[in-house]
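Why do we care about 3D structure at all? Because function follows from shape, and shape follows, mostly, from sequence. That is the central idea of this module. The next example makes it concrete: a single protein chain, its amino acid sequence, and then its structure expressed as tokens.
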Amino acid sequence: MGVKIQPLTEAVYYILLSVKQPLHGYGIMQNVSKLTNGRLNLGAGTLYGAISNLLSKGLISEYSNNNSKKEYIITESGTTALNNELERLEELVNNGKQILGGKQ
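And the structure:
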């Protein structure tokens, strides 16, 4: 049996999508809100707790810049985790459509 991959939370999924390009915390919050049409609004505690966790797992890293704001960027491991999550979500949707009779 292969390695079991833990699903990403919705917040972490959107944070990782947001840092495909270097971005600071407030920019991440704005981007997540934009991507979800305002459905998901991250609070500072949620965001910075997730960032701390993602940094410790090596899924994102701090991006060096000349600004005073810290920016973050996804790592190769983070991109792998994001791709794995996308495959997992596609499987969920496809199975749901198959069972419920929707189009694939």
